[in-house]
């Protein structure tokens, strides 16, 4: 079977293959950015896709945010577990009566949405929110231009999301060669492989969310 070369340049594109594994790439232009008191927030994905963040009826949500004021208070989100990763900049995050923590680039903090949380400093960050029995992990992967690496697929997770913060990545999925461009989100569901082969066409920074429902 010959490989298909697929480059996603249009709106949300979804391909289901026989086995049945599905993958999608959401281009950056399809993301919705809103203003909040401390800067801007961009929703990358929400599940189920019919859920509304304002109604808090999601199982999980992925987003980025720009913190543009020196001191900001986090929205109270009872029943939501949160993980935050700094993409650039630095903040000191404070959970009242619990702990303070300085987050440098690619550092992660995990906390509950009903904690009284604030931060000092300016940054761009990545957010993973989960509710109920849904669990999620957040990590990063750096690949230099010209390098190829295998990303091991954890079998316990049903969905994997790769957000390409910077760079350009080529990857092979079920005999399909894909290109992931800067700012795009790759969604992988029900993979039938233990490894994902990744090649960097430019120096690349990947943010990886692993979610089990």
Automatic annotation (TrEMBL):
- InterPro entries attached to this UniProt entry: RmlC-like_jellyroll, RmlC_Cupin_sf, Uncharacterised_HutD/Ves
* Domain of life of the organism encoding this protein: Bacteria
A single Pfam family it belongs to is: HutD
Which protein are we looking at?
HutD family protein
Organism of origin is: Ancylomarina salipaludis
Task: Specify the taxonomic lineage.
Answer: Bacteria, Pseudomonadati, Bacteroidota, Bacteroidia, Marinilabiliales
